[in-house]
Structure formats: structure tokens, C-alpha cells
């Protein structure tokens, strides 16, 4: 078996060329800083990718001090992954070059394929055919690329504008570039990512492939997917059921109306299928469905850094009585119930201050008294109540800095099966941003609205039940 | 009729002493900077209140260079409004002093009344009785106060931390202090407020009184209320129906579960009543109900600065195809429908660039081509389509600064009956914050999630129908 044949064999069903390549070729446009080859190059440098990077473009000799090769065939060493950012019509011949070179994976950033017209669809089919014969896997076309925070492997085709994403347990996949780091302030959010993948038109690598890969990825703890369509429903559910024994899967499936179903077709060429059938299949498999992009983005945060609850009995700690009550409504609508505290817990709370007794426990009346707010003692008292399975906690980002809350939270001995979520509000955006960032960076799921913070706990309870059912 | 008797008569049913006082006495604690009398004093100074301010506390002669009087009776001139921040037990005798002085309104910031226990309830009743005999209206107790941006009249009992709120059309009222400027970054949001009122325990001034006052307030265009209970449902609906002919009313009514209903009682002593009865009465009257604090806070923004739509046909302008489709789902679920563009409009769009044709119109493919994004031309083309009643527009806060968007939007000639809402996303929080602030300050309703941006248009369509029905 030649080296090329061995590589070909290894490629089938293996997505490592996309997320763990040792060498990358960037093929195509080098004319702009903020899009295309130069952007990919700068992003890879900024994020600290340590593999080899080759630039390919017949019109240049050198860009940013980096040598440019006329074709990928001219690169002297092996190339694991090619990122193509050319016009669509050039892609087939470039893929042929890649096949000849023994490339294992190709990300096609270019658009103008199946999402455009029949001609584009034919072009896309041609590309797929060439790649398949060569045993090359493709992500895209019409994708903004992938991210692997473990290696600084960032193939975003737009200049990102920041230089790191916290390593964390969330894997995102979507049929839209809007989950990419060029679109979302992951760094400013203190948001921990393992992998990102924009499927684009999904001509080859699909949701089932990625799910299989993420199942084995030790860095991924929760998988969040935006799917405009599913290529092979049976296969997907089969893989999903296996994954769900260990990792939660959250899915946002657009196409809930006739009008959006129609629009899907022209976006990524996806046939939406029957929404009701999807929904009931997801439910049966144990996949958690979310209804908005905001939820898809924010709910995984809790899964990635907090333990699953044993039950649905919620303790609420607030610093504004009104919010505590509103949170009861959103929590019960998410499947939680208000915990009835043990007498011993209320006695503990009463010793800290009489107005703290009860659930919600309200620190509000203590603010006017001055002195340090006993957040830590209150959280610990309620967290250790046998009748409490999870906690929603309201933080006031007013006069108190991020350090104050971080110190308190780090000092708490958190039982291994009691998740907490947080909502931060305050009079200055800067103060709220800072608390969200610091707490996020330290593994606390912080939200900017109480609805999502309580929904996240509801979703964790939902998955805890599913997991129990699947594992037994 | 003595001057005092004349003032007493004028006070009944008139809330101007709370929002338009010419003189204010701050009675009580002066020991802390960030809460109590000193905080109220500094807030009033910071927000530019130009009326007279008197400090009252028997233990001080002077604070922050301001003379302190032992009792309100010692103040040489008339006092319109008293703000009391003492312990609860001192309040009755202070209210007696206020009655003697001829004060017209009292805000009781102190807690420890009906929300606490039976003793507190009795104390509250005693205070109400004294005030009623003297013709004094009370807001509170257990309130963080009021705001009137027209005069810099800010009675928040906590130090706010910023020094202005944009004047605008939104009036907020709640039975929680969380709508106050000490809790929310109105300035950083570019959020336009007319009046804010925290009812607290609502011992006297209630939702019907305030609704009546706001109906006549020329600065208020939309009224948003968080109501834990309604004191006199019949009266409230009567006033509401009158107001609704001119101004929309949005209400968040907590107490959707047994558990939250129970919690309401201990928060502000509110009997929640039957939620279903409230809901159907609100609906019948034409009040718009919202289901979360986030919606109560964010949906009024569109009402305050955009015209009401004539119909529910939505045009979507996006820079990410995936988001455009997700927005169709959230929009149709909010009562909107996707507009079918005229052939002429699609021809206009095609001339700008062929990929722009259709609804949603997607600017995404143009980003990679470089050059200035034709947001202005696309918005204008769709805005002038007779089949379009309202527009949802996605802005990318990436490489483009706030000025770019502001210039474009300011140049657009907006038909008088077509509202627009915006969603901004981007890779840096700072960039997104800046666009939100600048657009907000210039009267464009900007959102940080697409769901709320489309829900706001749905709510405006809902109110447009209600208004039509009520006015005819």
C-alpha cells in the first residue's frame, strides 16, 4: 500500500483532517485582509496554530512574508487539509490537484453552488464526485469553516478580530456561519468551546458524521446543532442515541412555518422535511429541542460547566424580590418546581438574617443595612438542603465588582450533583460585562436574562432524566 | 381657603407632586453614600434636578455642604415632595410632620411594612390613615422611587452610578425596584425614558392612578407595567380602555403558577387573583401581555420610536442567510407573515446585486466581494414595497462601525407607517454595544437577539389592530 493509499483509507469516516491537521493549505484569494486567504492565515497565526501553513495562488510569490505556491502540487511536503476560497468555477480543478497531492480533507469556503442555482448544483456534484473517488472528505461549500480550540485550528474565512477562545466543553455545528468566531464574541463572553463546524451546503460531511466524531472527542461535553435539514434521519438518530448516553445534544430546527420551510431550500438547498416528524423523532431519541438561536447558544453553557441535577426542585437566591417571583414562573414553565426548604435550612438562613428565610431567599432587604452581602453563606445553606436539586442565583452588578462574586463562588463547596445558574443585572453595561466574563472564564454559567438561566436548569433536568433512561 | 387647604384639594388624584415637584425634602439616613439620603441627594444633583432640595435629619447640621434641618417643620419654604428613608417605626411621626408642613406627596423608601408581617401591615395602615386625612398621596412603602427624565427628577434611594437617561417615550412602572436606574443600564443602552415608578407595597398610589397620570403625560408614548396584583380591576380596566385609544399598554403579570402566586403575597402583600381572569380581561381591553421581564423591558422600545404598521407583512433584510430563516419562524409565531415582494422591488434588488432578490433579502454573499455594503439601497427598496408593512433588519457589528449604519439609516426616507427593528451581532461586545448605543440614541430600536426584535414588530401589529378597533 502506497502512502497515498494508506492516507485514503484512513480518511473514510474520519474527521480528524478537519480538526487536527498537521498541515494546512490555503488556496485562493489573497487580495483582501478581512476575507479569504489572508484572513485565514492571520486567524491561524492569531489563535496559535502550530502546524504547517501553505499559501496557494498562482498570482503571488509572497504574502505577509509567507511564500506562496502556484498550485498545491508544488508544496514540497504532505498537506492534510485544504481550505479553498476561490470562485466556485475554479473549485473542481483545485479539488483534482488536492486529490493528486493526497489531501485528506477540504473545506470549501466559496459560495455559488447548490444554494445558488442548477448550474451551481451541478458544479457541487462534480466536486463531490472527484473528492469521493480520491477518498477526500469535504466540509461545505458555502461555509465559514471550523474551529478546534485544543490546537488553535481556526479556519474562519473572515478576519475574526480577537485571538483566543477559551477551551471548554461546548461543540457547535450549524448550517450557517453565524456560530463562527467572526460572528460571536466568545472571548468577551468567557465562553468555553471545544469545536465549531459550519456545514454550509453539507455536500459531504454531515450532522451524523460530526456527531460520531464529537462522541469520541474528549474535549466535547455538550453538542449544540442548528440543522436546516437532516440528510439521513435514520442514521442520525442511531448515532444520536449512542451519543446521548454520554453527552447531551441540543438541536434548533428552523422550518416551523410554511414560509421558513420554503426559504430553507434556497439557503442551503435543504429539504426541511416534516417538522412534526422531526420533532417527535428528536423527542423519542432524547434530543433536547430549543426554539431560538439565543437558547441554542446559551443553554449549552450550563451543561458544559455544571453537574446534572438529580431532580427538579429549584432553590432561588435573589437580591430583588420581584425577580425572584418572575423566576418562579419561568422555572415552572421549564419543568422545575420550587423546592420546599428543610426547617434546618430556614434556621440557618434566619441566623444569617431573618428576612432571608424561605425560597426564594431574598438578599434585597440587606443591601440597605450595609456590610458585606452574605451571598456565600446563603448559597451554601440552600445548596446543602436535601430538598434542593439546583439553584438559580441573581447577582447585582452594581457597586460590587466581579472579584467579590468570584471569591464567594470559588469558596463554596458545591455538591457534585447540584447545578447553579446565574443572572447578572446592573446599572452599567461594563460592570455586567465584567462579571459575566470573569464568572464565565471560571466555569460559572452566567446569563443576561433570567428566563434563559432558568430554562437552562430545566433543560439539564430534562437531560438527566433522558440519560438515566438510556444508560439503565 | 387657606394655602394648605388649596394644596390639599389639588393633591387628590394628582401625581404631579411625585414627578414635577418644585421642592423636595429627603428625610432620614445620611450615614451611607450609596444608599439613603446621601444617595438621593447625589442622584438628584447628577441628573440635574433644578428644584429646591432640603435634607432632614436631627443628628446632622450639614452633609456634602448642604444644610440639614432637624425636622421638615423647620424648613422655611414649602415642600412638594418628601422622600422618607428611615426605619419603618419612625415613619408615622414623620408623615404627621409632613402633613403639618403641607407636603403633597410622600415616597416611602423604607421597608418593614405590609411585606414583612402583621405588625408592619398595621404600621402601613396607620401611615395611610394619617396621609389620607391630610390629603397627601403616598408611593410605597418599600420602593426605590421614581424618575422623570424631563426634569432630572430622580428619587432612586440607591446611588445610580451614571448621570443621565435619554429622554424618550417609555414609561415604566413595577412592583419591584428592578426597573429603576440603579438596576438597569438605560444610559448605556441609549434607552429613552419618560417616567419610572416603583409602586413598592402600593399602599396608596396604584396602577390606575399612574395610568391616569401617564395618559395625560405628553412625554409618554408607551406604558409598560409589571403588576404583582391589581387593586381595583374594574377601575383599572376602565382607565386602561381610555388610555389604549392613544397609547399602548404592555403588562407582565407574574403569578402564572401556584408557587409564584404564593410568593407574591410575601413580596408586596399582593393577592394575585385568578391569573386566567386577569389574562382574559387584559386581552378584552386590548392590553398587550408579555411573558418575561426581558420582553417587558425591550418590546416598548419599538413602540416609543417607530410608527405603527398598517399590516403584518414582514420584510427581512439579513447579512446571514441562516438568521433570516430563523427569524421567519419567530416572526410568524408573533403573528407576522412573510411579505411577497412586488416584481418591481425584486428588479430593484437585482440591479443592486442579483443575490439580493427575495424575502429575506440576504446581503451575506456580498461581504466577500468587498466594497461598501448596500444596506441603504436594500432597505429603501423593501421599505417602499406596497406589500411590506414592517421590516426586521440584521446588522453585523464586526468590522463596520456604528457610524456606518447610522449614516445609512439617517439617510433613508422612512414611510410614516412602516416600523423597523434591528438585531446586531458581532465578534466583539464593544462593537455591538457601540452600535446599540448609537442607534438607540438616534431612535432606532436595536435588539441583541432576533426573537425579541421580531416579537416587538408582532406586538406593534397587535396594538395597531386594537387601536383601530377602539378608535372607530
TrEMBL record, chains A, B:
Highest taxon of the lineage: Archaea
Top EC group: ligase
Coiled-coil ranges per UniProt: none
Positions of the CoA-binding domain: 18-113
GO terms of molecular function: acetate-CoA ligase (ADP-forming) activity; ATP binding
Keyword field contains Transmembrane: no
Catalyzed reactions per annotation: acetate + ATP + CoA = acetyl-CoA + ADP + phosphate
Record keyword ATP-binding present: yes
Keywords: ATP-binding, Ligase, Nucleotide-binding
EC number(s) on file: 6.2.1.13
InterPro entries in alphabetical order: Acyl-CoA_Synth/Transferase, CoA-bd, NAD(P)-bd_dom_sf, Succ_CoA_lig_flav_dom, Succinyl-CoA_synth-like
Annotated protein name in UniProt: acetate--CoA ligase (ADP-forming)
Organism annotation: Candidatus Methanolliviera hydrocarbonicum
Lineage start: Archaea, Methanobacteriati, Methanobacteriota, Candidatus Methanoliparia, Candidatus Methanoliparales
Amino acid at each position: 500500500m502506497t502512502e497515498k493509499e494508506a492516507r485514503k483509507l484512513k480518511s473514510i469516516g474520519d474527521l480528524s483532517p478537519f480538526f487536527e491537521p498537521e498541515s494546512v493549505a490555503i488556496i485562493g484569494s489573497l487580495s483582501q485582509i478581512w476575507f479569504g486567504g489572508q484572513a485565514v492565515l492571520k486567524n491561524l497565526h492569531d489563535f496559535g496554530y502550530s502546524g504547517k501553513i501553505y499559501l496557494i495562488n498562482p498570482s503571488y510569490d509572497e504574502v505577509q512574508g509567507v511564500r506562496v505556491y502556484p498550485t498545491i502540487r508544488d508544496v514540497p511536503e504532505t498537506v492534510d487539509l485544504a481550505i479553498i476560497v476561490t470562485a466556485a468555477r475554479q473549485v473542481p480543478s483545485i479539488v483534482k490537484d488536492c486529490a493528486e497531492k493526497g489531501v485528506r480533507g477540504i473545506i470549501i469556503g466559496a459560495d455559488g453552488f447548490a444554494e445558488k442555482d442548477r448550474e451551481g448544483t451541478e458544479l457541487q456534484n462534480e466536486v463531490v464526485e472527484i473528492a469521493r473517488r480520491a477518498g477526500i472528505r469535504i466540509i461545505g461549500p458555502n461555509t465559514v469553516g471550523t474551529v478546534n480550540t485544543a490546537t488553535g485550528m481556526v479556519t474562519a474565512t473572515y478576519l475574526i478580530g480577537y485571538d483566543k477562545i477559551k477551551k471548554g466543553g461546548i461543540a457547535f455545528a450549524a448550517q450557517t456561519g453565524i456560530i463562527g468566531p467572526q460572528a460571536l464574541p466568545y472571548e468577551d463572553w468567557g465562553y468555553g468551546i471545544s469545536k465549531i463546524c459550519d456545514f454550509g451546503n453539507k455536500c459531504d460531511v454531515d450532522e451524523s458524521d460530526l456527531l460520531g466524531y464529537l462522541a469520541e472527542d474528549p474535549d466535547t461535553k455538550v453538542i449544540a446543532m442548528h440543522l436546516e435539514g437532516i440528510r439521513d434521519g435514520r442514521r442520525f438518530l442511531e448515532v444520536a442515541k449512542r451519543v446521548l448516553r454520554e453527552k447531551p445534544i441540543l438541536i434548533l430546527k428552523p422550518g416551523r412555518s410554511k414560509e421558513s420551510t420554503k426559504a430553507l431550500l434556497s439557503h442551503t438547498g435543504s429539504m426541511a422535511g416534516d417538522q412534526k416528524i422531526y420533532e417527535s423523532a428528536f423527542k423519542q431519541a432524547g434530543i433536547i429541542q430549543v426554539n431560538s438561536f439565543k437558547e441554542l447558544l446559551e443553554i449549552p453553557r450550563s451543561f458544559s460547566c455544571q453537574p446534572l441535577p438529580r431532580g427538579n426542585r429549584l432553590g432561588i437566591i435573589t437580591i430583588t424580590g420581584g425577580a425572584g417571583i418572575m423566576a418562579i414562573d419561568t422555572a415552572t414553565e421549564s419543568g422545575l418546581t420550587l423546592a420546599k426548604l428543610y426547617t434546618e435550612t430556614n434556621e440557618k438562613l434566619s441566623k444569617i438574617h431573618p428576612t432571608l428565610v424561605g425560597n426564594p431567599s431574598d438578599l434585597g432587604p440587606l443591601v440597605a443595612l450595609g456590610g458585606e452581602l452574605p451571598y456565600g453563606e446563603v448559597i451554601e445553606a440552600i445548596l446543602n438542603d436535601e430538598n434542593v436539586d439546583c439553584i438559580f442565583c441573581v447577582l447585582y452588578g452594581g457597586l460590587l465588582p466581579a472579584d467579590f462574586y468570584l471569591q464567594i463562588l470559588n469558596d463554596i463547596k458545591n455538591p457534585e450533583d447540584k447545578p447553579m445558574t446565574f443572572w447578572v443585572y446592573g446599572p452599567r453595561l461594563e460592570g455586567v460585562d465584567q462579571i459575566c466574563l470573569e464568572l464565565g472564564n471560571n466555569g460559572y454559567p452566567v446569563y443576561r436574562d433570567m428566563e434563559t438561566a432558568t430554562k437552562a436548569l430545566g433543560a439539564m433536568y430534562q437531560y438527566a432524566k433522558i440519560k438515566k433512561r438510556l444508560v439503565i
